[in-house]
């Protein structure tokens, strides 16, 4: 299962790098891409041509705990 999770995360990161605007904003400029087949989200911001990933975390966790730092 661990290898499958890594492959799915890498696939999501590849999709983000190709078209970062395709995933919804969930708070101000913070986007979330859901990882296929797993309950994980990738949280990131776009700065020009650069994508900054802030967290890859389980969807059951509360993102508000760290969102104030982004």
What does this protein look like?
With 70 residues, the chain is an alpha+beta fold. The model has no long low-confidence stretch (mean pLDDT 92). A hairpin with a 2-residue loop joins β1 and β2. The chain has one domain. It is 30% helix and 36% strand. It contains 2 helices and 4 strands, in the order αββββα.
Give a short account of the largest sheet: 4 strands, antiparallel
Give me the number of helical elements: 2
Give the distance, in angstroms, between the N- and C-terminal Cα atoms: 30 Å
Taken as a percent bin, the fraction of beta residues is 35-45%
Order of helices and strands: HEEEEH
Q: What topology, given as strand order, has the largest sheet?
A: 1-2-3-4
Overall spatial form: globular
Mean pLDDT: 92
Helix share, percent? 25-40%
Structural class: alpha+beta
The Rg value, from CA coordinates, equals 12 Å
The count of DSSP E runs of length 2 or more, i.e. the number of strands, is 4
When the domains are counted, the total is 1
Low-confidence stretches: none
Keywords for this structure?
globular, about 30% helix, 4-stranded antiparallel sheet, about 70 residues, alpha+beta, 2 helices
Q: How do the helices and strands line up, and which of them pair or pack?
A:
Layout: H1 2-18, E1 25-27, E2 30-34, E3 40-47, E4 50-58, H2 64-67
Antiparallel strand pairs: 1-2, 2-3, 3-4
The gist of it:
The chain has 70 residues and is of the alpha+beta class. The protein is built from two helices and four strands, in the order αββββα. The protein has one domain (2-67).
